[in-house]
Write a structure and sequence with these properties.
525 residues, mainly alpha, two-stranded antiparallel ribbon, 24 helices, elongated
Length: 525
């Protein structure tokens, strides 16, 4: 991080009254203001927001490591929040609070240069802007700030933009929207596809959970389509088209994307004007939103001609992928072995996967592959035997369970579970927490039911840990648990004691059984 960026961060942490709950984009202000919405769509948003349960989105936090894949894949599936990424944290926090941050010493020569550059811009170039862009003191200030203290971060974000810009413009064009809307992502996420805000907004376009659901983006324990670059861009286009249809002004539509339609509507009613700049001058919109709109315009002006403002981005190659619809859940490591596409490449191309496996469930989802590899991939994937598709087991923590009991059940060590789930304190388990259980040495891969969020159904395929045979002569039998079975009834049916049945299958006093579980019994000859 540059010394200038470091100074800016020092200034940011000293700002009095900094609002941690607001996220530029991510509809942070909108989420806070949703209770007062009067329109029907706002009522839907409010109802969905009230139904949100933070516990249902904790799967990714617990699946922090992949026991069977290499370190590079394991790192890709660590929870990515701005708090763990100083550059994004600084970028977004600065934009949120730029009104409160002491700007660098004013440089009259540079400000004059900005004005002159804009004044001398050829008319043909001005016509390339798909959105009415203005150069006023607010926009000049953001250009100046982006070109000084924020220069390194803006330059890096511009470098990432080339990875997504072409296909985003294509989608916006298909949806009948100005293509320069793409530069919202410069302010929203710095073009990081896994950007995640403290307000729960995610992806390039920073959708909050409820708005993502409203626009069809599935979010559950195995997938977050807010991070699917193509689906999220399509959803953002339709959301912005809806906002523009209500407000008939792109600056106001951008303001509503940030603060919420109801908030902007009320500002218009109070201010008696539909001009964003007049509403901003009257301070009828949130401070964050008053910065957000000129920030988009400043970013757009810089992005059109970065060299003019002293930027030299190292542009990344454009995203070049095949898209296929897939519905099976298979470990990325297994797919990599079968298809010769590195697991790390599969992970990077599919930021919407929330664990090192393709999502589970019956619905189809987008799977992105290196260009030209889709046919060979699908052929190879179809040949993977069912018993080889997973190298791990998912376990949902139940009330009263301890790591020791869980480790005993699966025949592995406590350390193995802690290492696979980045658990530091073995005593701090949560009911419903999803644990990733590595395979036992020499064990066949199995799949255990895992708690889902939206449209997943519970799978009940379970395999008991190896039973311990009695010393007396007895024949072993396997019992598949049926609906209505209890341990006591099973013990009675086979003429064995309940403590024996528990001991043979390493089940504690509070352990539960479920239809589909396999229990081993030793029946005396």
């Amino acid at each position: 991080m540059s010394s200038k960026a470091t100074r800016a961060l020092v200034v940011l942490v000293t700002v009095v009254g900094m609002s941690a709950c607001l996220s530029v984009g991510g509809q942070g202000a909108k989420n806070a203001d949703r209770a007062g919405e009067a329109t029907s769509e706002a009522v839907i948003w409010q109802e969905q927001a009230e139904l949100e349960d933070p516990a249902t989105t904790s799967f990714e936090e617990t699946f922090l490591s992949e026991a069977t894949a290499n370190h590079s894949v394991r790192h890709l599936f660590e929870l990515e929040t701005e708090g763990e990424d100083d550059s994004v944290e600084l970028f977004k926090a600065t934009l949120e609070n730029v009104e409160d941050v002491k700007m660098p010493a004013e440089d009259p020569a540079f400000l004059a240069e900005i004005k002159n550059e804009w004044a001398s811009t050829p008319v043909d170039e001005l016509r390339t802007y798909g959105i009415p862009v203005v150069m006023n003191p607010e926009v000049e200030r953001l250009i100046y700030y982006f070109s000084t203290d924020m220069k390194d971060l803006i330059e890096a974000a511009l470098g990432r933009s080339s990875k997504y810009e072409a296909f985003m413009r294509g989608i916006l064009r298909e949806e009948g929207l100005p293509e320069d809307i793409v530069w919202i992502c410069l302010v929203e996420s710095a073009f990081k596809d896994k950007a995640y805000s403290s307000a729960g907004a995610s992806g390039l376009w920073q959708f909050i959970e409820s708005t993502g659901q409203l626009y069809g983006l599935v979010q559950n324990y195995s997938i977050d389509e807010r991070r699917d670059p193509e689906l999220a861009t399509r959803a953002a286009a339709r959301f912005l088209r809806h906002l523009y249809g209500k407000l008939h002004s792109w600056p106001l539509a951008f303001a509503a994307y940030n603060a919420g339609l109801g908030r902007v509507d009320r500002a218009i009613q109070r201010g008696g004007t539909e001009n964003f700049w007049e509403l901003s001058a009257k301070k009828l919109l949130p401070e964050q939103t008053r910065t957000y709109v000129p920030a988009i315009m400043a970013g757009m002006i810089i992005a059109k001609n970065p060299a003019r403002f002293g930027f030299s981005p190292a542009y990344e190659p454009a995203r070049n992928v095949d898209r296929v619809e897939f519905s099976e859940s298979i470990d990325l490591a297994v797919l990599a072995d079968a298809t010769n596409i590195p697991a790390a490449d599969l992970a990077r191309l599919n930021p919407h996967f929330r664990r090192p496996a393709t999502p589970s469930g019956s619905r189809k989802y987008n799977l992105y592959l290196p260009r030209g590899s889709s046919a060979s991939f699908l052929t190879a994937a179809a040949r993977i035997p069912n018993d080889k598709k997973h190298r791990w087991t998912a376990h949902s923590v139940r009330r009263g369970e301890t790591l020791g009991a869980i480790a005993q059940r699966y025949g592995i060590s406590i350390d193995a579970i802690m290492g696979s789930n980045a658990i530091r304190n073995p005593k701090r388990l949560r009911v419903g927490q999803e644990l990733r259980i590595p395979p036992r040495a020499g064990a066949h891969p199995v799949t255990v039911a895992a708690k889902s969020n939206v449209d997943e159904r519970r799978s009940t395929a379970r395999r008991a840990t190896p039973a311990q045979p009695p010393r007396t002569k007895a024949s072993s039998q396997v019992h598949k648990v049926r609906p209505g079975d209890t341990l006591y009834r099973i013990a009675q049916r086979y003429g064995v004691s309940l403590p024996e049945l528990r001991r043979w299958n390493k089940l504690g006093p509070r352990s539960l059984i479920h239809p589909g579980d396999l229990l081993t019994l030793f029946v005396k000859n």
